[in-house]
Amino acid sequence: MNGSDITIEGISKTFGDVRILNNINLNIKRGEFFSLLGPSGCGKTTLLRIIAGFESPGEGAVLMDGVDVVDLPPNHRQANTVFQNYALFPHLTVYENVAFPLRIKKITKAGIDTRVRESLRLVQLESHLHKKPNQLSGGQKQRVAIARALINEPRVLLLDEPLSALDAKLRQHMLIELDELHDKIGITFIYVTHDQQEALSVSDRIAVMNQGDILQVGTPYEIYESPASDFVARFIGETNLFDGVVASVEKINTPGVEYMAELDIPELGRIKVTTVDNIRTGQEVSFTVRPEKILISTEKIATKREDINFFQGTVDEPIYSGFQTKFYVKINGGEGGTAVIRVIKQHAVYSDEGPDIVWKDKVFLSWSANDGYIVGVKN
């Protein structure tokens, strides 16, 4: 099978007086595992249904390998959909469910048998072909739905929250299987999810959506490490987010960054952050730093580096999770303000088997200016 390039040009959609999609533009590469990620109601499923042909856009175009398919019905597009609720026929066996699209096309019996067995082999269900859906687990039902979607040899597989009905462990297992399946068949996958861990785990690239807009498109690393807005920073993983004012900006010659800025944050005081954006003194900005980027210790770390932010606080709440401990640390910052900063300490070696920092401990926090980000400029 071969994948298709998908180009979304100026897609907008309105239901009644509610605008669901706002001038969406996307380029999805041939053979890519691409995820549409965002909260419920952000428009991601509507966009997927427009690509599939189940919805018509109010305006805009959907191009598959350069050809606009907006006016084509779903069965004339080289794209098949895996639905959240599986949509299997309960009275048919696994074999018959997968064979159904080929019977509609009046493929020969021998041809159907060859292709059904090949599709079931891809999803590791060869030994279950005579079972009915009610005899299968949730993960097996989802694999039947995937096999049926692949039987027509589509160039694009559209997956609408396919794992949301499964428990957490099974979701992780199915994610691995989906990733392996994508590597085997090489077609374009477009995956809709509200679960940021799912998207980060399997995607080549991710589009983060909110309220009908695409806020950022990038690799999982880019989305997580360099969020483009305060919404993306909050939605992708845990983070500490503060509003502040730019106190100073200095141009520097460090690879990957252009400026060193100092921000005045009422709850913290003054902090240092590097940035590639040409910000100016007096601008109001949002600043974020991930909990795992912050070092926590009962002793102040001695260093001559000028790009390290130091704060002292009190452990307000430690939460031990086996592989890590999350600390909520109360900071008495500038202008008499207070802040609670989340810090995550990984337990990577035997000596970290238990928490050496406990409730009410006085602690020192530190992080590099390179580990924080300006994620929003307000003026």
Task: Annotate the secondary structure layout.
Layout: E1 6-15, E2 18-28, E3 33-37, H1 44-52, E4 59-64, E5 67-68, E6 79-82, H2 94-104, H3 109-122, H4 138-150, E7 156-160, H5 168-185, E8 188-193, H6 196-202, E9 205-210, E10 213-218, H7 220-225, H8 230-235, E11 240-254, E12 257-265, E13 269-275, E14 284-289, E15 295-297, E16 308-320, E17 324-332, E18 338-346, E19 362-368, E20 372-377
Parallel strand pairs: 3-8, 3-9, 6-7, 7-8
Antiparallel strand pairs: 1-2, 1-4, 4-5, 9-10, 11-12, 11-14, 12-13, 14-20, 15-19, 16-17, 16-19, 17-18
Helix pairs in contact: 2-3, 2-4, 3-4
| Uncertain ranges | none
Spatial arrangement of strands, main beta sheet:
6-7-8-3-9-10
**Tally of structural domains:** 2
CATH-defined topology of the largest domain: Rossmann fold
CATH superfamily of the largest domain: P-loop containing nucleotide triphosphate hydrolases
CATH architecture of the largest domain: 3-Layer(aba) Sandwich
The CATH class of the largest domain turns out to be: Alpha Beta
Please count the beta strands (DSSP E, at least 2 residues each).
20
Helix content: 10-25%
What separation lies between the terminal Cα atoms? 50 Å
Structure description:
The protein is α+β, with helices and mostly antiparallel strands and 379 residues long. Helix 3 (109-122) crosses helix 4 (138-150). It is built from eight helices and 20 strands. The protein has helices spanning 44-52, 94-104, 109-122, 138-150, 168-185, 196-202, 220-225, 230-235; strands spanning 6-15, 18-28, 33-37, 59-64, 67-68, 79-82, 156-160, 188-193, 205-210, 213-218, 240-254, 257-265, 269-275, 284-289, 295-297, 308-320, 324-332, 338-346, 362-368, 372-377. The strands form four sheets. Strands 6-7-8-3-9-10 form a six-stranded mixed β-sheet, sandwiched between helices. Strands 13-12-11-14-20 form a five-stranded antiparallel β-sheet. Strands 15-19-16-17-18 form a five-stranded antiparallel β-sheet, with no helix packed on it. The longest helix is centred in the middle third of the chain and has 18 residues, at 168-185. The chain has two domains: 6-234, P-loop containing nucleotide triphosphate hydrolases (Rossmann fold), CATH 3.40.50; 238-377, Beta Barrel (OB fold (Dihydrolipoamide Acetyltransferase, E2P)). The chain is elongated. The protein is 22% helix and 38% strand.
